[in-house]
Specification:
Length: about 450
């Protein structure tokens, strides 16, 4: 039994839907189809979800909504006409889009989520209709009926554990179930979405709920590449990754799959495969709990920018009990998340995402560190990037660091900091952003091209 999820670019046009239908039909185990809203047909196009945001903004500002309503309805109409699905489904979708503009605005914490969810909800109805018309017994099912219940946290819902028992009952359905991604329903019956890109999360929850043998996530690339294709020319697609490796790569900028989507499938011990709707014969990337055979030490190289570092020095820091706690407490009180803390004997660096450090918070940190903690020096270092080499098998290989250091040295890349967690799944290098691309290329050449 398989759960199959299609992203927006796989559902952007009738031609894409035809591919989707062939993929679902080709394997009778593909019983649960989770869908996104129609995505972009070309570079300059607008995603239906983004159009719904525009619609919501116009509605709450009490502006004329007719143009944006029509744009959204026309988007579905184009697909319905090209697939010759008839008037019934178009009327159903039009009504649902128009009705959004009669929902209460005042005191409605879930209004934004309800607008956004309409993108996937209507697409699921359309797709179920299309499958049925082509002889595949299929049924649209709303998350409420399916049993996907979530916390009341608009825009960042989390699944309620009680959902899983109810979802398991879906195994007994005979039809192919078409489920809209991206949202669940609160116990009070309100629509509540996951964060953007959250249809991946729905797929993972359904896979865990129905105890699927496989969660297939279809997108528009041949799986996950060993480095970003915008940085490295034609990087190879990774055939197998562990959940831990995927998490590390996603953290450092690999965005093929929503990072929260890994959790339900991981806990449910369900293997996941990322495949390409436009090239379904390509095996894609399988994400597994443990590698199935021998693998190379480094499976992927990621880089991400927009980091800053708070560099603190204080003579005899190592002897001062509680120093680290006091520093972190300052950050906690300012509600700042930190990412890494490389240390020396008398110094400590706190690496953060730049967006965490507003000018006011920065001043406050500097003032508290100098006045209360009496540090000798504090400096904010900006324009930093992190580079990660990732691979569970690094642990049992000697010379991985030597190889990385040699690549950096050969390309004159200056390392600001290095950090490796005890699980040894990754090594992180902090460098200046201006050298990020060169660093990723240097590492890719060294680990994969040599
Ligand atoms: N349509 C939503 C978004 O654009 C969710 C998704 O596509 O996964 O964020």
């Amino acid at each position: 039994m398989k759960v199959i999820k299609f992203g927006g670019s796989s559902l952007a046009s009738a031609a894409q839907l035809e591919k989707v239908f062939q993929i679902v039909k080709a394997d009778k185990d593909r019983r649960f189809v989770v869908v996104s809203a129609p995505g972009k047909r070309h570079e300059d196009d607008t995603k239906v979800t983004d159009a719904l945001i525009k619609y919501y903004k116009a509605y709450i500002a009490e502006k004329n909504v007719a143009d944006i309503q029509n744009w959204i309805i026309d988007r579905y109409r184009g697909i319905i006409d090209d697939l010759s699905l008839g008037q019934g489904i178009l009327e159903r979708i039009s009504k649902s889009i128009i009705d959004l503009a009669s929902l209460p605005i005042e005191g409605n914490a879930f209004l934004y989520d309800t607008f956004l969810a309409a993108g996937e909800d209507n697409n699921a109805k359309l797709i179920a209709e299309y499958f049925k018309k082509n002889g595949l017994p299929a049924r649209y099912i709303h998350p409420q009926e399916a049993g996907l219940f979530v916390t009341s946290e608009p825009g960042k819902a989390r699944t309620l554990p009680s959902s899983y028992d109810k979802l398991e009952e879906l195994r007994n359905c005979d039809e192919v179930l078409v489920i809209p991604g991206f949202f669940g329903v609160t116990t009070e019956g309100q629509i509540c979405t996951f964060s953007r890109g959250g249809s991946d999360i729905t797929g993972s929850i359904i896979a865990a709920g129905v105890k699927a043998d496989l969660y297939e996530n279809f997108t528009d690339v041949d799986g996950i590449f060993a480095a970003h294709p915008g940085v490295v020319k034609k990087p190879h697609s990774i055939s197998e990754l562990t959940y831990k490796e995927m998490r590390e790569l996603a953290y450092a900028g690999f965005s093929v799959l929503h990072d929260e989507a890994l959790i339900p499938a991981y806990r449910g011990k369900i293997p996941l495969v990322i495949k390409n709707t436009n090239n379904p014969d390509h095996p894609g990337t399988k994400i597994v709990l443990k590698h199935t055979g021998a693998t190379i030490p480094v499976v992927g190289i990621a880089g991400d920018d927009d980091f800053v570092s708070i560099n603190i020095s204080k003579y005899l820091m190592n002897r001062e009990v509680g120093f680290g706690r006091k520093v972190l407490q300052i950050l906690e009180e300012l509600n700042i998340r930190w990412e890494h803390i490389p240390t020396g004997i008398d110094d400590m660096s706190i690496v953060l995402r730049a967006r965490e450090l507003t000018p006011i918070k920065e001043q406050e940190i500097i003032s508290q560190l100098t006045r209360h903690l009496e540090v000798d020096e504090v400096e904010i270092e900006r324009d930093l990037s992190i580079i990660m080499i990732v691979g569970e098998n690094m642990k049992s290989h000697i010379g991985v660091m030597a190889k990385a250091a040699e690549a950096f040295s050969k390309h004159h890349i200056n390392l600001e900091m290095i950090s490796q967690g005890s699980s040894e799944v990754s090594v992180m290098f902090v460098i200046k952003t201006e050298q990020e691309k060169a660093a990723v290329r240097a590492l890719y050449d060294s680990f994969f091209n040599s």
